[in-house]
Amino acid sequence: MNYLNGALLDRLASEYVTGTLRGAARRRFEGLLAGQIPARRAVRHWEQRLVGMSLRLTPVQPPPSVWQHIEAKITPKPPQTQAATAPVVQPGSSRLWQGIAAGVGAIAVALGALLVTRPPEVQVQVQVERQAVESAHTAVLADDTAPIWVVNAFPQLGEIRVKALRSVDLADDRSFELWMLPDSGAAPVSLGVLPTSGGAVLSLTPDQLQLLTATSKIAVSIEPAGGSPTGAPTGPIPYAAPLLHVGEQA
User: Fold this and answer.
1) For the purposes of burial, counting CB atoms within 10 Å of the CB of 102, is it exposed (0-12), middle (13-18) or buried (19 or more)?
2) Residues 169-200: pLDDT tens digits?
């Protein structure tokens, strides 16, 4: 199959961003993203198109029950049961490496689908930060159920801004640490400790900024509180995702 066929690539990119491309097909497409600029450009086109739609929405804070409704919609239910339990992801599982690089626009699409199928009284609108459009590098780190962090890099500001889309449970003596995985195969480079809720700004050195342009994947490891004591990942790596370069040229 010629994955670089224009019409096919556009369709795969749209399904990837909206979250409807799943299983082996999604993993094959993620492999294509790592090595093909046209594929990353197609994904970026759909992300920016959907983000632009979401920016026109009036922001409201959804109640906690909204995420329960979303999970009920996107999680298959066994025929003999009335409710399905969200899959439990064990640290170290190979499934954790698959990641979800759906982009910020996918969040708006998932909520939009819910609005179509839910009764009129369920009105949910999501505010997506304009920074996601303006950033030079962006990624979404997720587990098997939903996105967790949105990562946006701003070279002109010398920083990365991270937003936790939902709280993540972690022992008090442990931290999540973000790493670049250079395309050259060099050792992972730390970008800093991630928040388990809310947002954070991670400062970047000139060397880190330069390396960021030659990196197509990021990952998260579980480290002692405050980050790795060795300068390299020492614990499990539960999350990974492609890093999309917004300003990339062929």
Assistant:
1) buried
2) 899 899 999 999 999 999 999 999 999 999 99
